[in-house]
Write a structure and sequence with these properties.
YaeB-like fold, 3 helices, 5 strands
Length: 87
């Protein structure tokens, strides 16, 4: 799988606590092996984010991404659930 981080995603990572960055790295590894691993809770979003999908990083942190095709995704943002969906 080809994973392309957006500039916004790269900036968001720098703001994350160290523990969350470690969890993100592990979940991205899992995602690259099996995007639909049950621990990721991979699901389509609705409303203004309907072109994106989300995976769980921790109980509260989520990663939003966009599929270009079956082999290529672009990482859009990572933040808490409220931080992402109450914008």
């Amino acid at each position: 799988m080809i994973v392309i981080p957006s500039k916004h995603f790269e900036k968001a990572i720098k703001k994350l606590p160290t523990k969350i960055r470690a969890s993100l790295a592990e979940r991205l590894r899992m995602f690259m092996e099996d995007p639909f691993d049950s621990l990721l809770n991979n699901h389509a979003l609705k409303g203004s984010l309907r072109n994106y999908r989300s995976i769980n990083i921790t109980g509260d942190y989520r990663l939003i991404y966009e599929e270009y095709d079956k082999k290529t995704v672009r990482l859009i943002d990572v933040d808490t659930h409220n931080g992402l969906y109450e914008k």
